[in-house]
Amino acid sequence: MLLLLDLDGVLYRGADPVPGVAAVLTDRAAQGDDIVYVTNNSMHYGGDYLARLRDMGAPVAEGRVVSSARATAIWLREHHPEARRVLVLGAGGLERELRDVGLDVVTAAHAATRAGQEGIDGFDAAGGPQVVVVGLDPQVTYLRIAVAADAVRAGALFVATNRDPIYPTERGLRPGAGSLVAAVEIASGVVPVAIGKPGPHLLEAAAHAVGRQPGEAVMIGDSITTDLAAARAVGCRSILMLTGVSTRAQLEALPEAERPTAVAADAAELAVVLEAFEGG
Predict the structure, then answer these.
(1) Which domains can be identified in the chain, with CATH numbers?
(2) Out of 24, 179, 234, 252, which could bridge 175 as a Cys pair, Cβ 3.0 to 4.6 Å?
(3) Whether 139 contacts 112, CB under 8 Å
(4) How far apart are CA 165 and CA 92, in angstroms?
(5) Is the pTM of this model over 0.90?
């Protein structure tokens, strides 16, 4: 089987592993399952997850973690090969993923500084980018939003890594990438292409990373609004883990068409469900 796993809320919660899940995945990998981790988080470079996942005992290899940042880079390379210069409102991991596919990246921070010093708009300050990519930027400023909106209004393609309105942290909920995307959208009047869940692009990139098709996958996630919706978008089976943000009460309130293929309250139930899926 091809297993696509969300990270926060499924494999770990903040800094703490979800008990038993890594062991279940190790067993599935030993049985020949392809395992790819998918996350809407756009701040970190894909390779930076490897040590953390290995320390938790999860089976992982290079290229088997696909973030919304990585999926955005792949989508641009495949769908807009003519694009060369990209203005990025986001964190360092997003910049690195875009550079990895050969794009010339200019940061919103650099463009904002240049715009202020030279009295020019964001499009010119960024060197005439063909694309504006917006992800989560913990150091966001008014001027960074302004230069991104300037470039979008000037005709640059507007791409959002994801539209998550909030970002859960150990200190509580913080504004997510979607909050920054909304600011640029309102300021520019342009609706972006969104790459992350609940749309299909992230799961497509994850499946293709191991030479598979997304419809073959089993999406394992904890969010009704993102993980289950993404599974429906690509036509694959889904397992809702009740170890993260979604509750059983929210599950029971769903219409039949939006329910997951299966539900697991913990790692033991996940193992049983996967065995049943393999038998089916």
Answers:
(1) 2-40+197-279 (3.40.50.1000), 70-194 (3.40.50.1000)
(2) 179
(3) no
(4) 20
(5) yes
